[in-house]
Amino acid sequence: MAGSGPKAVQIVLSDGERDQLTQLAASSSKLAWRARLVLACAEPGSTNAGVAATMGATPDTVRKWRSRFAASRLAGLADEARPGRPKAALTLSDDERATLTRWVRRASSAQALAQRSKIVPACADGASNADVAARLGVGAHMWPNGGSASSRPGWKD
């Protein structure tokens, strides 16, 4: 048959796996998307191209997650460790935190400095960049290149 690729790995789910995948699929995480993809792959006659079109993915992405699920079942849907240095924790001394708080309260501070003075303590308290940005009503431009506040030049670790 011209144009047909390799046959897709068949996915057969136990009732327990189907229940777990259905529960995972109800959330809004990456894992939920992968669970929905596997559920679609488990449908009789499903193809990588068909699932890709339904899920808004490429056939290669469907093939990857179908194969990982077939090899490792539910554990295969978890993120693998990424290469590179782990994200450094942002810590502030009491003096640094007091200085930032003073800058926020001082009327003569530049508006951008005052805004950044709110961002850094929130990140140091463990909030994610997205949560801090949403809470303060700022965009991603406050973190250059999408990095964290701790990746800014000049910030002390």
Q: Mind sketching the topology for me?
A:
Blueprint: H1 15-25, H2 30-41, H3 48-55, H4 59-72, H5 94-105, H6 111-124, H7 129-136
Helix pairs in contact: 1-2, 2-4, 3-4, 5-6, 6-7
Protein name: Transposase-like protein
InterPro entries: Homeodomain-like_sf
Could you characterize what this model shows?
- The chain has helices at 15-25, 30-41, 48-55, 59-72, 94-105, 111-124, 129-136.
- The chain has 157 residues and is mainly alpha-helical.
- It has 2 domains: 15-77, no CATH class; 94-151, no CATH class.
Structural class: mainly alpha
Number of helices: 7
Biggest beta sheet attributes: none
**H/E element order:** HHHHHHH
Residue windows where pLDDT falls under 50 for at least 5 positions: 151-157
Count of domain modules: 2
Radius of gyration, rounded? 23 Å
Spatial shape: elongated
Q: What is the averaged pLDDT score? A: 80
Distance N terminus to C terminus? 60 Å
Classify the helix fraction into a percent range.
40-55%
| Beta-strand segment tally | 0
Strand content: under 5%
Protein name: Transposase-like protein
InterPro entries: Homeodomain-like_sf
